[in-house]
């Protein structure tokens, strides 16, 4: 350097052996800008990545691609705390002005603690992007955009689709609440009512129960990539704010889920109200028949 605004540098590629780079910005009094976009690659991860220390203007670190063209970029660890907003959710995709790697954490395709390679496509935008809470991040509700970002999970074990909802053969629980209301009517908050599509009241453990658990029997060993939870709005504002997950292949020997760090049992952030759904990804996935 120095490099100035619209001038094309003779050597646009900067190479360093250091783990840190400091960039100094000087601007004249009559000009201002929204921020910057930095593209980089490392010897360990040759695929390009993008960092956005300021307000990001465009999430792409490559020239404008054709619609539905797929890309693979490397996202470093710690993208969850990058400055900038995301609009959308894992099911419908993200507004193309979203911070790319932060959206990848929200979508559950990478773990924030590790980062990793991300595969995505740029597709036709939609009218409205709905907000969602997933993997510890809250996305915003966004308006119409010309394009959107859609993340693709690499499916393991030849499963037909990563986003298939797995069928639960049997629900079991440590206990259940037998409620008698003020009119003397019985209501059973049994384990079978824990299915996400169930209308009315859900499952609830016996009041005062310690270390309560809900168990899902998938019938056979499956590749489980995540979980969606929701509260019960039947008369009461009930929901679970946090939980642990354990799994078993035979229903006898159980293993606590520790996530990508592997150091201690992972605590998943649950719901903040009884209405909305909250998604949490398992990275790495769980191979099991039983999930608690």
TrEMBL record:
Pfam families: F5_F8_type_C, LCCL. InterPro entries: FA58C, Galactose-bd-like_sf, LCCL, LCCL_sf, Neuropilin_MCO_CoagFactor. It comes from the Eukaryota. The keyword Disulfide bond applies. Residues 156-292 form the F5/8 type C domain. Keywords: Disulfide bond. Residues 73-149 form the LCCL domain. SUPFAM superfamilies: Galactose-binding domain-like, LCCL domain. GO terms for molecular function: signaling receptor activity. GO terms for cellular component: plasma membrane. Gene3D superfamilies: Galactose-binding domain-like, LCCL-like domain. PANTHER family: DISCOIDIN, CUB AND LCCL DOMAIN CONTAINING 1 (PTHR46806:SF6), F5/8 TYPE C DOMAIN-CONTAINING PROTEIN (PTHR46806). This is DCBD1 protein. The lineage of its organism: Eukaryota, Metazoa, Chordata, Craniata, Vertebrata. The gene is Dcbld1_0.
């Amino acid at each position: 350097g120095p490099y100035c605004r619209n001038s094309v540098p003779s050597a646009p590629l900067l190479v360093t052996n250091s783990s840190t780079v400091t960039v100094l910005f000087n601007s004249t009094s009559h000009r201002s800008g929204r921020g910057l976009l930095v593209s980089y690659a490392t010897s360990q991860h040759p695929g390009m990545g993008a960092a956005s220390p300021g307000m990001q203007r465009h999430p792409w670190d490559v020239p404008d691609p054709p619609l539905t063209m797929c890309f693979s970029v490397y996202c470093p660890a710690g993208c969850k705390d990058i400055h900038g907003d995301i609009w959308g959710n894992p099911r419908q995709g993200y507004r193309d002005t979203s911070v790319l790697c932060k959206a990848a954490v929200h979508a559950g395709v990478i773990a924030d603690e590790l980062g990793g390679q991300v595969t995505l496509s740029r597709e036709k935008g939609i009218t409205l992007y709905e907000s969602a809470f997933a993997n510890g991040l809250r996305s915003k509700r966004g308006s119409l955009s010309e394009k959107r970002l859609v993340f693709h999970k690499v499916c393991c074990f030849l499963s037909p689709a990563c986003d298939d909802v797995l069928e639960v053969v049997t629900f079991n629980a440590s206990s259940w609440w037998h409620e008698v209301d003020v009119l003397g009517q019985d209501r059973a908050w049994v384990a079978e009512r824990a299915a996400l599509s169930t209308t009315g009241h859900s499952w609830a453990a016996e009041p005062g129960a310690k270390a309560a658990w809900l168990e899902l029997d998938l019938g056979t060993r499956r590749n489980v990539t995540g979980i969606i939870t929701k509260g019960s709005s039947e008369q009461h504002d009930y929901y679970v704010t946090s939980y642990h997950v354990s799994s078993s292949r035979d229903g006898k020997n159980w293993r606590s889920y520790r996530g990508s760090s592997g150091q201690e049992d992972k605590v998943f952030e649950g719901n903040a109200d009884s209405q909305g759904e909250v998604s949490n990804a398992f990275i790495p996935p769980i191979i099991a028949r039983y999930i608690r």
